[in-house]
C-alpha cells in the first residue's frame, strides 16, 4: 500500500459480493502478480496527494478489470463501479468523504489476449 486511501479502496472492492462472484479474492493493489489467474482486478494511484496542513487529500485511482472474455471484464468493471461510485463513509479504517466516478476505457491486451476495462475514480480522503 502506498497511500493512506488504499486500504479503504481494497475494503470496498472486497466487500462487493458481485465482484467476488467474478474475481473471487483476486483483487490486488498495484500491478497483477505474474502468475495471476483471470479474471482479476488491480488498482493504483494515478495522481494526487495529501495536503498535510489540512489533513485531507484527493487522489485519482485507476481500477482495472482483466479477463479472457470481453463480457466478463465488463461485468467486473460494472461491479467495481457499483462498489465505488458515490461512496462516502469509513472503509478499511479510512474516512472517505466521497468517491467520484470519472471514466472507463475498454482495451484489448494483444500480448496477453486479455480484455481490460480501466476505470478512473477521484477519491477524497480525510485524515486525523
Please name the defining characteristics of this protein:
128 residues, alpha+beta, 5-stranded mixed beta sheet, two-stranded antiparallel ribbon, 7 strands, elongated
Order of helices and strands: HHEEEHEEEE
Largest sheet: 5 strands, mixed
User: How does the helix and strand content classify structurally?
Assistant: alpha+beta
In percent terms, what proportion of residues is strand?
A: 35-45%
How confident is the prediction overall: mean pLDDT? 91
- Number of discrete helical segments: 3
Radius of gyration: 14 Å
Low-confidence stretches: none
Strand order of the largest sheet: 1-2-3-7-6
Q: What gap, in angstroms, lies between the N and C termini?
A: 18 Å
Q: Specify the oligomeric state.
A: single chain
Number of strand segments:
7
**Tell me, what's the shape?**
elongated
Residue share in helices?
25-40%
Walk me through this protein's architecture:
- The protein has 3 helices and 7 strands.
- Helix 2 packs antiparallel against helix 3.
- The chain is an alpha+beta fold and 128 residues long.
- The mean pLDDT is 91.
- It has a 5-stranded mixed beta sheet. Strands 4-5 form a two-stranded antiparallel sheet.
- It has helices at residues 6-15, 17-23, 70-84, and strands at 27-29, 40-51, 56-67, 89-91, 94-96, 99-109, 114-126.
- The longest helix has 15 residues, at 70-84.
- It is elongated and about 45 Å long.
Amino acid at each position: 500500500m502506498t497511500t493512506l486511501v488504499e486500504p479503504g479502496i481494497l475494503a470496498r472492492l472486497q466487500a462487493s459480493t458481485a465482484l467476488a462472484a467474478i474475481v473471487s479474492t483476486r483483487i490486488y493493489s498495484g500491478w497483477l502478480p505474474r502468475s495471476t489467474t483471470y479474471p482479476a482486478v488491480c488498482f493504483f494511484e494515478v495522481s494526487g496527494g495529501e495536503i498535510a496542513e489540512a489533513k485531507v487529500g484527493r487522489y485519482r485511482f485507476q481500477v482495472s478489470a482483466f479477463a479472457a472474455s470481453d463480457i466478463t471484464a465488463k461485468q467486473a468493471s460494472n461491479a467495481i463501479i457499483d462498489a465505488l461510485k458515490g461512496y462516502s463513509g469509513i472503509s478499511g479504517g479510512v474516512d472517505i468523504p466521497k468517491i467520484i466516478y470519472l471514466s472507463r476505457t475498454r482495451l484489448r491486451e494483444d500480448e496477453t489476449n486479455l480484455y481490460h476495462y480501466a476505470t478512473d475514480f477521484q477519491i477524497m480522503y480525510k485524515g486525523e
